[in-house]
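User: Structure tokens for this complex, please. No commentary.
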Amino acid sequence: MATVEHSDGTLGGGPDGVSDAALRRRDFINIAAVSVAGVGAAVTLYPLVNQMNPSADVLALASIEVDVSAIQAGQAIKTIFRKQPLFIRHLTPPEIAAGMKMPGDLRDPQSLAERTAEGKPQWLITMGVCTHLGCVPLGAAEGENKGAYGGYFCPCHGSHYDTAGRIRKGPAPKNLEVPAYVFKSDTVVAVGEEA
Amino acid sequence: MSFPWAEEYRPKSGFMRWLDQRLPLPRLVYGAVGGGYPVPRNLNYFWNFGVLAGIALMIQIVTGIILAMHYVPYDQAAFRSVEHIMRDVNQGWLLRYLHANGAAFFFIVTYIHIFRGLYYGSYKAPRELVWMLGLVILLLMMATAFMGYVLPWGQMSFWASKVITGLFGAIPLIGEPVQSWLLGGYAPDQPTLNRFFSLHYLLPFVIAGVIILHIWALHIPGSSNPTGVDVKGPQDTLPFHPFYTAKDGFGLGVFLILLAAVTFFAPNYLGHADNYIPANPLSTPSHIVPEWYFWPFYAILRAFTVDFILGAKLWGVLAMFGAIVLLFFLPWLDPSPVRSGNYRPRFKQFFWILVLDILVLGWCGGLPAEEPYVMISQVATIYYFAHFLIILPILSWTEKTLPLPNSISESVLHGEEREAAPVDLSGVRPATAAE
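Assistant:
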């Protein structure tokens, strides 16, 4: 490519004879033009791809505030966070005690303390999405099957979660996901906000 | 493809040979836009515009498919979804502005492409079908652009759909049923919006199909050229690649710079502010105009103000459609054997008068229907039809044309003696004899 083939159109082919590695003007223009076009095409791809990411109105609803004052110990509510069910559960002292234990059959070992806000182990806030294949587990509403460990039970494929939302039995691989949240006050929690 | 000396496709690797025997797609591309398509060596930059129109269509399809991911064709939500695209969707403003201005640029390059054909006689034998397929593409583009303009469901959208479908209402007897069939009701409404969305999505692919026919028909005789003289031998042509890919590439760069400049710095310049008001069936904007690329036709439509045997409204509609239908007969209205306007001194003058006439029509079409613009557009409309129906046939019989060059290569090398003279190379070391 960068060899001298003709004296016309050659840069640097001066009388001093330093021209063996000279760059042909045509090659230079070719490489420069194709490079600019290539970079331009690559940059153009960005908006074409990025437009499919969550839009500003979706991101604006990416955090919610929930008033938990009405939830009595032993009760739970279902709400919607990022278009998916969210369980907020007010644990009773025995449930807290069970969640703090670390039995040997934990598939995804975590204690309740790691899964709740500091100083508020009674508030178990998890996604209501089974980590197996995404069904909504039972156990949040009154009278629903809470499973063999008193937490949640997924009716789709029989995953049992305990009172800390940890997987104990069944096909699910992970504990119920705990979203980021902060307590704005004793009774208001902002889910989706980083602490 | 078109000439016996066209370079044959030779697979460069074992895999390509394997592929070529099973699916000769690379061979097709090579013969259509590669080194295997010989093109007259004297094409000027006006021959860029066909490729530019094809690229403009691709830009419209890509941005349009993306807009359809976010747009909602529902009368209560369409306007809001467009605002959602503008405000919330990542770079949605860019994609929508590109789509809106891309349509305008598509028409700009297409109109230049058509005027190129008119001036250089590209519609003449043996390229009549190329020309007619091109006109089919133009009609499809107009339908597509019109329906796309309705989709944002702003004031201009709504009233454009009312006015344009009203044109069909002018047809005697069946006009009203046809109009309500098009609208799916008595006025533009949800059914109208929904079907326009469906067709607006469909038609670009129909256009792409007709473009394939257009190029296929073109590649039988090969491209025309500024002299209008037929290709006589290999010395008259160059392979499409790299010579015309490079030339088109440069034109494409200029085109994209202009499109980007308008999109980024004047994105609403070619649009109409009233289309940012949601559609209101109870209030017509004081001055409704179509997009600029319909203005000449709109002026013809409005030029008919008096009933004469048929109603004025029907005359206007007939004339507007007739202005394009007429062009289908152009190859036979202008039977002059000389193609290029370069060798037709009178034709050349009338060509430029026609360009001016269409610009005047466009200017009138964008203005309110008041005097003196109505009168001006009436004169310009008469001239438009007179150009094709009277002037061109007479010219083709009476005009004294200039002598044509014997061949393309001769016309290219008219200064060959001067150009072929040795350059003063004193002081420059001659090339080392490599072989």
